[in-house]
């Protein structure tokens, strides 16, 4: 039996780590957003893949939600002294990931191959796959014009008003083989949308040709975990963006983002209440530590299995 999780970075990584901890090794595939990826200081940075990787390896920085725990910043300090860019912080340990990945990609390896090798090296027993091996780049249209994703998210701290989003390269991108294999796995038991930002993190995955169709045609239950508690995002700009788009942050607004793609929505107890078209399950959705992540992962899987009955 197998489970497919669909995840962005910070919020997604926590549930992904919980699922990885409670499922037997090899039974979980996590398909991860690469729309946030970019070239910076000559390196290919894949923030969501790295956030999920570090979380599954138990080496993530829990306060920041990205990067490595116990990080040092000598490289950034020196780069700043030399007049280099410092708005996007690359820690010394994290830097090794970007350098080795860039070297492998330039040597002709696919992103999938690089991710498989690095996750294995860090002792991760579940499959982590990029949504695609082809470049897809998220562009945010704002009141100040179009911004590349990290310019909007990190450099401008999401301050410009969000108007629209597009995923450059998506129309030419192919689903990564490992993602397609998980979607087509006859032993697939359930699909889980992690509590990532539906607009910034999940929409790019759905923009890859074939992904939405395959999810619509699923024969197994699909559940999403809402990233909101009482209208507020646990971390990040999801509430601001959903507000600026006039969508709101209610469970209904989340369910609308996944219309036709989910059978159940897990929400916090603060948001309990029935919805049309999807079954709702209310629980404590805040993940403070690995124990919460594992508990919530078990509850999400239990909910999905109940939907299959
Ligand atoms: O807010 C920040 N996020 C940083 N992130 C996080 C990242 O840009 C976003 O959280 C995601 O793209 C959104 O999911 C990094 C991620 C990496 O993998 C490597 C370096 C960074 C650096 C920053 C940073 O300086 N500031």
Give structural notes.
With 309 residues, the chain is of the alpha/beta class. Helices cover 39% and strands 20% of the residues. The mean pLDDT is 96. Helix 1 packs across helix 12. The protein has a single domain, classed as CofD-like domains (Rossmann fold), CATH 3.40.50.10680. The strands form four sheets. The chain has a seven-stranded parallel beta sheet, sandwiched between helices. The site of the ligand O=c1nc2n(C[C@H](O)[C@H](O)[C@H](O)CO)c3cc(O)ccc3cc-2c(=O)[nH]1 has 18 residues, from helix 2 and helix 6.
What series of H and E elements makes up the topology? EHEEEHHHHEEEHEHEHHEEEHHEEH
Strand tally? 14
β-strand percent reads 15-25%
Mean pLDDT across residues? 96
Q: What is the CATH top level name?
A: Alpha Beta
Show unreliable segments.
none
CATH architecture title: 3-Layer(aba) Sandwich
Strand order of the largest sheet: 5-2-1-9-10-13-14
CATH fold-level label: Rossmann fold
Structural class: alpha/beta
- Total tally of structural domains: 1
InterPro entries: CofD, CofD-like_dom_sf, FbiA/CofD
Protein name: LPPG:FO 2-phospho-L-lactate transferase
Keywords: Magnesium, Transferase
EC number: 2.7.8.28
